[in-house]
Amino acid sequence: GPKAKTPHAMPMASSKADDEPSYYYDPLPPGHHDHQQDQNYVVLPIYLPAVLRRQRRFRLICAATLFLLAVVVYSLWPSVPDINIVRLRLDRIHIHTVPRIAIDITLDLIVEVSNRDLYSLDYRSLDVAIGYREKQLGFITSDHGLVRARGSSYVHATLELDGVEVFSDVIFLLEDLAKGSVRFDTVTEVRGQLGLFFFELPLKAKVSCEVYVNTRNQTIARQNCYPE
Questions:
Q1: Which residues form the Late embryogenesis abundant protein LEA-2 subgroup domain (predicted)?
Q2: 82-227, CATH topology level
Q3: What is the separation of C-alpha 145 from the centre of its chain, rounded to a whole number of angstroms?
């Protein structure tokens, strides 16, 4: 019988869609947005490498060391002692007119030396010069003394001046005595050393004061002091 013809498969043209990969997306579960809003977040600290941590620790130690060193130096740095005229009493005064104009004065003096440092003050000498109207009348010298740390010491001395020539200033002195107030100029100088452990630091302090003495009750009305 007749032979059946075998149909030949025609080649199919490939479409562009077949060459592209297929992607599949799963739908989000219901309530996903509500669940995302309820999530909790954990914030982790920034991690510092070991080198940076050591550098930061080293800087903190250096800063603390410098601060402590500054405090120690400030505390141990020597300071000038405070010198005040506690009492300057006019005990005796006599004016001579023959054979020349002169004056006899006896002054009772107490000087306070205050040590503000953390170590003792050992002074070899304490000199006080007393003047009137920028003219020196005389001076007092005190010997060795010791002032403890954060303490005070009082030096008592008497100045006797006999036959001091004042010439033109005698008129002003008489006026001051009549007013009941006399201004004296004092210059106090301390020489010694500060005892710091096993060391001795040399010290020299000089203070000038204007002392106003009330001659009625023999007390100091006021004084103005300044270091030199």
A1: 111-205
A2: Immunoglobulin-like (2.60.40)
A3: 28
| pLDDT tens-digit profile, the chain (228 residues) | 544 454 544 454 444 445 555 545 455 555 555 555 556 666 666 655 777 778 888 889 999 999 998 887 777 777 778 888 888 888 877 777 777 777 788 888 888 888 888 778 888 888 888 888 888 888 888 878 888 888 888 888 888 877 776 656 777 888 888 888 888 899 988 888 877 666 667 778 888 999 898 888 878 888 888 887
CA end-to-end span of the chain = 149
Q: How far apart are CA 123 and CA 121, in angstroms?
A: 6
**Sequence letter at residue 93:** I
Residue spans per domain, the chain: 47-77, 82-227
Q: Whole-angstrom Cα distance, residue 8 to residue 102?
A: 159
